[in-house]
C-alpha cells in the first residue's frame, strides 16, 4: 500500500493531448462532481488552478485506501478518476465484492496460481478479465460492459454482428413509434371482457381449464380469472388463465431460483433433457395436433408437419448444447486469449401470434440450451399450444424454474418484464410496435439486453430460426487475457 501511495503521489495532471500526463480531462464535461470531504483517509492529486480554469472537466485523482463494500463510492459512479482499495479474506469474498459493483467494464486478477485465476475469472460477472496485466485490447477480441456499464460489444465477431442483419431480413426492425409510457400496461384491455352469452355445446363435453406454469408446478393465476378460447366455429376450445403482474413477478422469482443450478449443469446433461423433451413431444404429437387444429381451425395435416418441425428444432438445440463453449482467439498480444461463452441469465420471451407452437419451441429451446432460464409469455391470440407444453416439461426431468409459461393480455406482463431488474434480457417477438418501443425504453433503466423480432422471420425455416443469431442472443462472451513472454525475454 505504501508503494501505491508513493506512485500515486507522483501522478501528473495535464491537457488531454499531452502524452506525459497521467490524469487528463474527462471527455464529457457534464460529469457530476464527487464530494469526498467526508472520507477521512484519502490521497488527492489536484491540478493547478490555471489548468483547471482552462479545462473545467479536469477532476481530482483520488486514492481511497480503505473503502467499505457498502460505501456510496462503490455503489455509485464517483465522477472522478479514482483507485478504490477494499480488503477481503477469501477469493469467494473478493468475487462477491466485484460482482456487487453495478458499474464495471474489466477486472484484473493478480496471482501466480493460474488455476486460481481461471476459477476466479469464470466466477466474475464481467466481459473482460486480465490475468497479471491490464488494458490489453485487440480488435479481434470482444470488449464491453455489463450491468450499468451497458451490454454492447466492441470488437470481435459479436461487435461486428451488432452492425449486421440476416440476409433474409428486409424490413426495418426498429421504427419511431409514439408510446404513452405512463399508460402502457396500466389500461384495461377491452378484448378481455366476457361475451354476453357463451356458445352452445354438447352437454357431454368436459370443460378443459388450463393453468399457468412456473417453479415446476401448475399454478392458478393470482386473479383466479380465466377466459374462454373460442375458435371460428364459435366453439369453446379451452379456458385460458389470465396472468397479471403478480404472476410475472412470481415467475421471475422462480426463474432466478433455478438459474444457478441450470447454468452450472453439465452441457451434456442439458442436451439429454432436451432430447427427452423431444421424445416425449413426439409420442404425444397426434394429441397435440388434434387439439391445436381444433383451436386454430387449420388442417390436421398442417399441424402434423408443425409437430415434426418442433421435434426437429428440439433435436437441433439439444445437439448444440455442448458444441460451442468458447474458443482461443488469435491476437497480436503474446500469450493466450480465451473467449468463454456464458448464459445471459433470466430471459423474458414474448411469443408472436403466428406459429404459436413452433415459435414457442424455437425461442425456448434456443435459450435453455445455452444455460438460460426463461419466462415465456405465450401467444396472446392462441396460447393453447404453448400451455399444452407444460405437461411435456413436467415428465421430462426439466428442473423447476427453467421454463415458466404465462398467458393473458401481453401489455401489463410486458411492462413488468421490461422493468424487472432481475430479468437480464427481453426477447420481444410480438406484433405490437408500441410494445416493442416500450421494451427498448424500459429496459434501458436496468441496462438489460433486448431483441426485437422481425416480421420477415419464417418460423418454419431452419435458416431463420437456427444458427449464429439465436446463439449470440442466448450467450454472452467473456474474454480472459493470459499474457506471457517475460521468461525468455533475454
From TrEMBL:
The Aldehyde dehydrogenase domain, residue ranges: 4-165, 232-450
InterPro entries the record matches: Ald_DH/histidinol_DH, Ald_DH_C, Ald_DH_N, Aldehyde_DH_dom
Signal sequence interval, chain numbering: none
Protein's name according to its UniProt entry: Aldehyde dehydrogenase 16 member a1
Molecular functions per Gene Ontology: oxidoreductase activity, acting on the aldehyde or oxo group of donors, NAD or NADP as acceptor
Pfam family for this entry, one: Aldedh
Amino acid at each position: 500500500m505504501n508503494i501505491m501511495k508513493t506512485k500515486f503521489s507522483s501522478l501528473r495532471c495535464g491537457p488531454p493531448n499531452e502524452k506525459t500526463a497521467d490524469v487528463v480531462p474527462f471527455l464529457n464535461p457534464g460529469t457530476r462532481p464527487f464530494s469526498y470531504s467526508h472520507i477521512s483517509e484519502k490521497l488527492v492529486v489536484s491540478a493547478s488552478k490555471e489548468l483547471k480554469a482552462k479545462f473545467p472537466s479536469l477532476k481530482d485523482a483520488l486514492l481511497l485506501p480503505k473503502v467499505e463494500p457498502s460505501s456510496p463510492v462503490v455503489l455509485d459512479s464517483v465522477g472522478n478518476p479514482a483507485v478504490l482499495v477494499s480488503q477481503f479474506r477469501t477469493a469467494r469474498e473478493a468475487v462477491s465484492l466485484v460482482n456487487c459493483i453495478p458499474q464495471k467494464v474489466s477486472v484484473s486478477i493478480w496471482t501466480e496460481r493460474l488455476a486460481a485465476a481461471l476459477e476466479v475469472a469464470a466466477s466474475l460477472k464481467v466481459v473482460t478479465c486480465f490475468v497479471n496485466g491490464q488494458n490489453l485490447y485487440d480488435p479481434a477480441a470482444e470488449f464491453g460492459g455489463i450491468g450499468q456499464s451497458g451490454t454492447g460489444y466492441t470488437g470481435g465477431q459479436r461487435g461486428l454482428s451488432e452492425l449486421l442483419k440476416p440476409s433474409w431480413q428486409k424490413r426495418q426492425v426498429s421504427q419511431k413509434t409514439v408510446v404513452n409510457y405512463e399508460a402502457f400496461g396500466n389500461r384495461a384491455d377491452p378484448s378481455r371482457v366476457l361475451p354476453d352469452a357463451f356458445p352452445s355445446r354438447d352437454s357431454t363435453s368436459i370443460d378443459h381449464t388450463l393453468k399457468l406454469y412456473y417453479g415446476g408446478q401448475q399454478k392458478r393465476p393470482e386473479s383466479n380469472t380465466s377466459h374462454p378460447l373460442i375458435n371460428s366455429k364459435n366453439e369453446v376450445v379451452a379456458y385460458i388463465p389470465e396472468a397479471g403482474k403478480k404472476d410475472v413477478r412470481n415467475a421471475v422469482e422462480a426463474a432466478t431460483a433455478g438459474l444457478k443450478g441450470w447454468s452450472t449443469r453439465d452441457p451434456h446433461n442439458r442436451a439429454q433433457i432436451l432430447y427427452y423433451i423431444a421424445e416425449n413431444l413426439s409420442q404425444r404429437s397426434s394429441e397435440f395436433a388434434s387439439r391445436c387444429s381444433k383451436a386454430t381451425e387449420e388442417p390436421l395435416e398442417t399441424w402434423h408437419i408443425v409437430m415434426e418441425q418442433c421435434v426437429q428444432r428440439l433435436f437441433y438445440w439439444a445437439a448444440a448444447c455442448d458444441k460451442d463453449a468458447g474458443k482461443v482467439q488469435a491476437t497480436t498480444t503474446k500469450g493466450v486469449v480465451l473467449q468463454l461463452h456464458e448464459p445471459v441469465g433470466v430471459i423474458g420471451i414474448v411469443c408472436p401470434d403466428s406459429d404459436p407452437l413452433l415459435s414457442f419451441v424455437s425461442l425456448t429451446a434456443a435459450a435453455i440450451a445455452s444455460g438460460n432460464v426463461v419466462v415465456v409469455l405465450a401467444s396472446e391470440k392462441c396460447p393453447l399450444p404453448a400451455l399444452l407444453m407444460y405437461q411435456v416439461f413436467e415428465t421430462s426431468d426439466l428442473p423447476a424454474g427453467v421454463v415458466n409459461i404465462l398467458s393473458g393480455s401481453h401489455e401489463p406482463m410486458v411492462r413488468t418484464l421490461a422493468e424487472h431488474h432481475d430479468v437480464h434480457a427481453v426477447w420481444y417477438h410480438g406484433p405490437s410496435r408500441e410494445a416493442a418501443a416500450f421494451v427498448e425504453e424500459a429496459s434501458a433503466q436496468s441496462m438489460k439486453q433486448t431483441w426485437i423480432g422481425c416480421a420477415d422471420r419464417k418460423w418454419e425455416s431452419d435458416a431463420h430460426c437456427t444458427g449464429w443469431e439465436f446463439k449470440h442472443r442466448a450467450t454472452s462472451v467473456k474474454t480472459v487475457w493470459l499474457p506471457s513472454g517475460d521468461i525468455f525475454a533475454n
